[in-house]
Amino acid sequence: MEILNNYIDGSWVRSSETNTVDVVNPASQEILGKVPHGNNTFADVDRAVEAASNAFRIWRDVPVMRRVQPLYKLKQLLEENAEDIARTITLECGKTLVESRGEVQRAIENVEVACGTPTLIQSEFSENIAPGIDEFMIRQPLGVCACIAPFNFPGMIPFWFLPYAIACGNAFIIKPSEKVPLTMQKVFHLLDQLDLPKGVINMVHGGKETVDALLEHPEVRAISFVGSTQVAKYIYGKGAANGKRVQAQGGAKNPVVILPDADIEMSVKIITDSVFGCAGQRCLAASNIITVGDNGNIKDALYESARSRTTGYGLDESIEMGPVITADSRSRIEYLIEKGVKEGGNVLLDGRNAKIEGFEKGNFIKPTILEGLPLDGDIIRTEIFGPVMSLIELETVEDALGFINGGRYGNMACLFTSSGANARKFRNQAVAGNIGINIGVAAPMAQFPFSGWNESFFGDLHGQGRHAIEFFTQTKVVIERWPKEWSRKF
Questions:
Q1: What CATH code is carried by the domain that includes residue 118?
Q2: pLDDT at residue 483 is higher than 90
Q3: Residues designated as active site
């Protein structure tokens, strides 16, 4: 079985760590590969940072118009290999092939936006702030930057950061999730074909030890992370304590509100896709579905839509939902469902103990719906990160906003309505960074920042678009005077 190599200083190299963990297909339990995992990955990080630091000294002085040229080729390579990458995502992550294709497309879109860095990196100039004195601001790269990537979007999330970082003149290190390292392995074979100085991009495998090495290394200037809130707090705290710039995307418990005047058929389809897409394993998955003034029609429609959703192996084009990532994840989700029952909730649709013919050992949970959970209980506020919908009935839009704004997260909030007044009130008052109106997954396009709030994000500048340009640069203000008598002397 293949032990995955690191990519350091333009070459594929073996890890210093001999211990490994298995990369497992969550649908079949087939072992797809082995990835280094242990304390000796500290040496790998040192080697990668040294290579990146050396490359940065050269790369930072390359004109920005030249720095983006490799990104045009990268876009072409990603498009040519999109289907292969998508299949790899499905194999190691479990999501459907349709979802994996969409993920690759989102990655490509970030490369496209980063190609605009020559314009995005421009700054301000003020002439004659005082007689004969001009003042202007320039943006310069930080140095060595790193991304600690999650398991649920192995092909997309690194591209919230990588193309912007290198276009801005930085060197970059990616630490993929040890659960899904094969996708980045394929991507780095494409990156290896680009005309980049050795060391500008690097990849190191491993687990927490590798993460800590990046967080502690004095030459790593910035850290980008996406994952759970618990780990995001750890990354943010330890990174900041070591003097690094940090952007750490955390978890969520995303609410969706349906008003009686909404298009029920359209809304139900969109919401079902939002809750159960990627088996609920995305930070923008809808979770708490709040019906306002429902006479039972919305609830019944949601039940039928969820019940009819097909679950199975993601490479089967007819399948609408795949497995969750690990057996431990399945056990945790089933435990939380049972805890919801103990709190007083009712399982309207039970997806536990799912068995898929031909994939009996897979980590499958079918669509599940809970109702009647107490609003002051734990489960209604806990990120389940699985295919579980919680139904909540409230009387007014104001009640819905009060419930939403009383939560600890703030990643996304959505409203389904035909009322412009209610839509305006909702987008103005809902405490969340990504707002959807008649949209089930309010995922920003690449030119906009992925804007989590509260405990869904720790930091100041988000991934994607102009925020990424700002995150991966530091500003320098120049004030200069050129007296006429000096000019005459020379």
A1: 3.40.605.10
A2: no
A3: 283
